[in-house]
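Translate structure to sequence.
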């Protein structure tokens, strides 16, 4: 359970539930270039409320933002409370009941792109990922 309380506007907006898996080890360093998937990943937070913003490429009817993580305009976004621990390389499992993509795995790309301290919100880039080895 997170150690913070969502504000009234966050409770209205943060309708998605996710599990957050934290990578353990040297993720993103030269010592770990042989594999993108970290050797150890642990479930750090369960049923965290957030807001998932799906982006799509206007010229292509496919959700290109799910795979083209180098194009910021079409990359999916995820919003958390500013006190929520999350960062680059974390795995996200969407668990929102009734959501069309419940059970889908995502991966956080980089650190927070935007922090709004008044609204207590942080925005991170998100790309769709295959189920990691520890999920099977």
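Result:
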């Amino acid at each position: 359970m997170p150690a913070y309380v969502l504000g009234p506007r966050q409770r209205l907006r943060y309708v998605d539930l996710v599990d957050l898996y934290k990578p353990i080890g040297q993720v993103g360093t030269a010592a770990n270039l042989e594999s993108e998937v970290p050797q150890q990943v642990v479930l750090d937070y369960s049923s965290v409320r957030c807001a998932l913003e799906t982006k799509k490429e206007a010229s292509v009817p496919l959700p290109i933002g799910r795979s083209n993580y180098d194009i910021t305009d079409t990359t999916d976004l995820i919003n958390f409370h500013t006190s929520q621990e999350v960062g680059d390389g974390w795995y996200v499992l969407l668990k929102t009941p009734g959501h069309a993509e419940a059970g889908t795995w995502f991966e956080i790309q980089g650190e927070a792109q935007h922090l709004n301290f008044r609204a207590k919100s942080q925005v991170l880039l998100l790309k769709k990922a295959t189920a990691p080895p520890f999920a099977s």
